[in-house]
Amino acid sequence: MDSPMCLVENADGELHVVPGAIKYLMGLNQQVVVVAVVGLYRTGKSYLMNKLAGKRQGFALGATIQSKTKGIWMWCVPHPEKRDHTLVLLDTEGLGDVEKGDSKNDAWIFSLAILLSSTLVYNSRGTIDNQAVENLQYVSELTERIKVNSSSAASSSHDDEEGGDAQFVQFFPNFVWTIRDFTLLLEIDGRNVTEDEYLEHSLELRKGGGKKNLMYNLPRECIRNYFPSRKCFVFPTPTTPANMPHLDSMDEADLCGSFRKVADTFCCFIFQESRTKTVKGGHKVTGRMLGHLVKTYVETIAKGSVPCLENAVLAMAQIENQAAVDEGQAVYQRGMEEVKALFPVAMGQISAHHLRSDHQATQAFMKRSFKDENGDFLKALAVAIAKHYADLLIQNEDASEKKCVALLEKLSVPMAQKIKEGIYATPGGYELYCSHHDNMVAQYRAEPDKGVRAEEILEQFLRDKSLEKNSILQADKKLTENEKKIHEEQEKRALAEQAVKMEAEKQHQLEKLIQEKERSHQEGICQLETKMVQEAKEKQHELERALDSKLREQEKLMAKGFTEKEAAMKEEIQSLREKEEAKREEKEEQSRNFRAIAQGVMESVSNGLGHYFNYKKAREQRKALVFKEQVRFNLKSGAVGNIPDKEGMTLKQDKTATPKLETGAVGNSKDTTLPKVNTGTTDKSPGSEV
């Protein structure tokens, strides 16, 4: 992105997403680190954002008393240190703008900055005094502006009350306070302190009750409780007051050296310590997912409702998981294009491509999907892949049949010509016919790349030719009746052997499908298990992070003697520990759920392949029907015709002696109409209607 663009527009006190900015985010597939800056208007927030973007100009600085930034502006740049990550910088409208006069609008912009960021930078000027802290009044209103759990969940309100601030700690960003134009010494009671110690000192609570102390402590408690990670930077004045209006046009070398040093340290901290944006459940967010979040939150606010983290994540999960299914399908289909161009191919070849493409498709799905807790979307992908594979198996079989039929027709032309010329209608003609016949079969077998139906098509062809062969046998006057019987038995054995080869071919294909299914199932289980373990770790990390922050906060309060806070703090810590224990107990439930998902995926694959098995069943029905019609025709017609010999005499021969093989048919029966078979699909792919 060359320059910033408006992400959320603030017009007449109403917030709206900017379609162009959302479209840009939707095309961003990298994970994002989101840094948002908030603060009073005219405090130099935009300068910090430009500095993080590595640009002198970008976000409007302005040199007048009027606020330049309206709404929320976004600038996406490659992350300087995290590979394959995008740094998303959000510059927000200045809080407390007198021209706006609507603190409620400010509160929503502040809430959006928290919801969308992984690091929140609060920018102020001068010192951290009571006024500076009170300007952060929006922090104390966050529980009214943001909900963690869905109100539709039976226990959500109870959880929110029981979890207290700990609920927010799990999901809120790191907090960085930047103080501009700082002119004081970093000393407390005559002792030099660090910037972070200065911040913690400014956030210390007052002991005792009373309304005054309660009001003083409220914003400080909220900051301490909501933001587990806090950091402070104090910036000296960058240049002389006369030059401040021209800050955006000044060279870096002309700025104060101490200012540049702090600015560089600030940038290094943001680049190194700002974590990848996550949502509830610990799922890492991509630019595309951030676009969904922005749209969901802003639309919720526009309706007058309170943004809910859980609802936003669930809505985003539905969209992302369906997109993950579509992406997995596309990966599989692209992977199978190469082998499809080679049809017909052997079962092993199409099987190898299927297993590889299936693995890649599942990987692509796992990478993009999240919160597919019942495995519904994974099952949908399995069904889609199985159906597509079934269609490809059918297309491959049809291509094999077409090639084999064409090859046999071509190879049988010379013999058909010899029959017309009466070459075989002489004494000894049967032996010559058998020699030519065996040579033709050998040529057929020698032809490579006939595909998966080579033996089945040959079996059909030989069975059709057996009547022609028997007619020539019976007409051969050189052979005795006993010799003819011997040849008949030999022909029966040959046909039986070919039938065995055909069945072996079918059995091999079936075994290959079963092996594929099992191997694909095992690989899918492995990927699913890895995904579930990773998601469980992310959830556990969320809880541990929140628990650790609460324990550190408790330690600080106890050290300062705030014993009255101990009971409330212990209750929150106990709540987090109970949740942590509950997560551990969930592992057994997850194991059962995992097995159910795996079984569901297997059933989905079987259902998808049912399309292919229905097709094969219909084809067998067709073969039986055509063969039955052929036998009936032969019996009705006497099953004999005439073959001319060299002297013009005739020999009786089966009328279907030189049948032309039709694709998908046995013999030359004219009636090849078949019953429709329900394949479970509505597409027009081969075999969808047989």
From TrEMBL:
UniProt KW keywords: Coiled coil, GTP-binding, Hydrolase, Immunity, Innate immunity, Nucleotide-binding
Checking InterPro entries in the record gives: G_GB1_RHD3_dom (IPR030386), GBP_C (IPR037684), Guanylate-bd/ATL_C (IPR003191), Guanylate-bd_C_sf (IPR036543), Guanylate-bd_N (IPR015894), P-loop_NTPase (IPR027417)
Signal peptide residues are none
Query: Which GO biological process entries does UniProt record here?
Result: innate immune response
Origin: domain of life: Eukaryota
User: What residue spans carry the region label Disordered?
Assistant: 639-690
Q: Where is the composition biased (Basic and acidic residues)?
A: 644-657
Please give the PANTHER family that the UniProt record associates with this protein: GUANYLATE BINDING PROTEIN
For this entry, the protein name equals GB1/RHD3-type G domain-containing protein
* Protein source organism: Oncorhynchus tshawytscha (Chinook salmon)
